[in-house]
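Hello K.,

You asked for the raw outputs rather than the summary table, so here they are, unedited. I folded two proteins back to back in the same session to keep the settings identical. This is the first:
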Amino acid sequence: MIGELPKALDVNGKTYAINSDFRNILTIFEAFNDSDLTNEEKAFVCIMRLYRTEIPSADIEEAIRKAYWFCDGGDMPKTKPEKVKTLDWKHDEQIIFPAISKTAGVVDIRELPYMHWWTFLGCFGEIGEGLFSTVMHIRQKKAQGKSLDKWEKEFYNKNKELVKLITPEEQAEIDETEAVLKELI
């Protein structure tokens, strides 16, 4: 029906209840971004976290397809994905949640007991001006090799840690350095 938010997915003619809260999907995305996990392990995490009941092995492949469809926003029109990553849910957490909270008209969405993933995506898509938009705009310009305006250069120079995304390789180096330092202490 038009306007309903799915709280269950049909898989091979069977209906399975899902955990549709935005926090759960963001946890699934953390697994998707974990370079230590294989694609099969990522799919397993997705299935185990999204579906509220065990999925029979005969339905796993279709359940994964439906889970990815749900996490991707369903039939929502898609924009062509960036070749260069410009958003990291974990890195950008402290600027994403205030922006979405403002869009949703609440103090902090993290304090809500529940928000459907698609509602979260809708609020995310409606983010207007502000810190998050500025950071995304600068990242996109840099990813496209475009020159930054004077005010953007100043913002970037003052906020490099906020704007610059760390690659998995850089994060591995940081983790290795931190591990060595912990051994020394």
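The second followed immediately with the same parameters:
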Amino acid sequence: MHAAASARRRPAPRRGRATVTGVLGELLLTAGVLVLLFVSWQMWIGDIIIGAQNNEKGAELSQQWAAEPVPEPPPVIDTTDDGEAVYEPPVLPHPDDAEIFANMLIPRFGDDYSVNIAGGTSRARTLDKIGIGLYTQSKMPGEVGNFSLAGHRTTWGKPFNRIDKLRLGDAIVIETPEGWYTYRFRTLEYVKPTQVDVLSDVPQMPAQQTGERFITLTACSPLYSLAERIVAYGVFDGFQPRAEGPPASLASVDVASPSAEGAP
């Protein structure tokens, strides 16, 4: 009889608390999956979409310039051994912040690679919304000194994602309403974020003036980190006025060939 009474007095299982715990666990699991999906979207799927949109905007700007009256070519300053004219590259005015003034075309990054370049390097106004930014102290395309640019290596279309795939001699072409400025890639290095002398007129030699024309591309490194900067340098190769059509430097290349880090 006592055993029966004890059995009747045992508390019933707390089903309500167990149910709440189970529901909470399911909600947390769902939230974790949603966060993972968002990160995947931001880092991969979103990048693909934004990158394609950036290329479309660049192509549209190229078509717009092609439809406008052809500018007068600049003065001829020399001829090549093949008898081709060598032009004095026109120097454009420095753009305002977030003002688009050029496109970047790099055959090594694919035939459809065409990204707007705008003044300034702020994320909010230029790098996230437009693509590639011009440093405030930078020279302009074709100008003596250092034409220096910044771009994302991850997220927001990642225009400089494949900067480490450049090979010695690869063309880096800047298209403007006047025509095309071709630079040739020379070398790649990694520096600390504080090493701003890479933006000097002669990279890393701020006290020097050589009369040469350089291009410098900068991005964060390693991928998904701000610990370092990856820097690609190039030298000016020539200017082709719009009246002569796109330059030979825009010819397709084998994008599967070895990267800059394996180049001689």
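The domain at 44-262 is CATH 2.40.260.10 (Sortase; Chain: A;).

Happy to rerun anything if the numbers look odd on your end.

Regards,
P.
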